Amino acid sequence: MSNSAAQHILSIYQRHAQTFAEQRSQSLFEQRWLEKFTSLLPDAGSIVDVGCGNGQPIAGWFIHQGFQLTGVDGASAMLERARQQFPAQRWIQQDMRKLSLGETFDGLLAWDSFFHLTHEDQRSMFDRFAEHSHVGSALMFTSGTDHGIAMGQFAGEPLFHASLAPDEYRALLANHGFGVIDMIQEDPHCAGHTVWLAQRAR
């Protein structure tokens, strides 16, 4: 499947925001990883959730834990739902590939969002992560298990996913000053997600 399918991701989520809200698990199977992530942050620290969707359940969990949450998503229909649920937080419409907020955060999250980018766009995202982090910042994202492209389906439409190889992710993290804190492939305690947790050391 051509990388052109990746260009339709935002359109799919924009048109099917209601379906996403209905189908997205609210069980917080991610909580163990969210707790690992926030253990690296200061109390009431700042978090940018890149590809935050409608804010549930992950952004909502951060907010209830007392963190200062900035949610970024390219689909306005998703953000409108987030604003309705959490009007006191900051929600910004921006394509993550062009992320430019002019500030750094204690934590950066790209959960089930970053993996919708092409290989080249994923490589470029590490510049964006570095730009929005400082020494001590935590970064967590999900990926595939090896280099490749996988097509899923959502609301009857093809849904693009891609991944780099683990060694390339490690190299990109290291080249941008991040050290890997933890990484589990297809974590059986997290619905089979492959999760990376890193922290910026320089």
From TrEMBL:
Residues spanning the membrane: none
Keyword Transferase carried by entry: yes
Any one GO molecular function term: methyltransferase activity
InterPro entries: Methyltransf_25, SAM-dependent_MTases_sf
Keywords: Methyltransferase, Transferase
Name of a matching Pfam family: Methyltransf_25
One GO term of the biological process aspect: methylation
Keyword field contains Hydrolase: no
Domain Methyltransferase: 47-132
PANTHER family attached to this UniProt entry: TRANS-ACONITATE 2-METHYLTRANSFERASE, TRANS-ACONITATE 2-METHYLTRANSFERASE-RELATED
Entry protein name: Methyltransferase domain-containing protein
Native species: Kosakonia sacchari
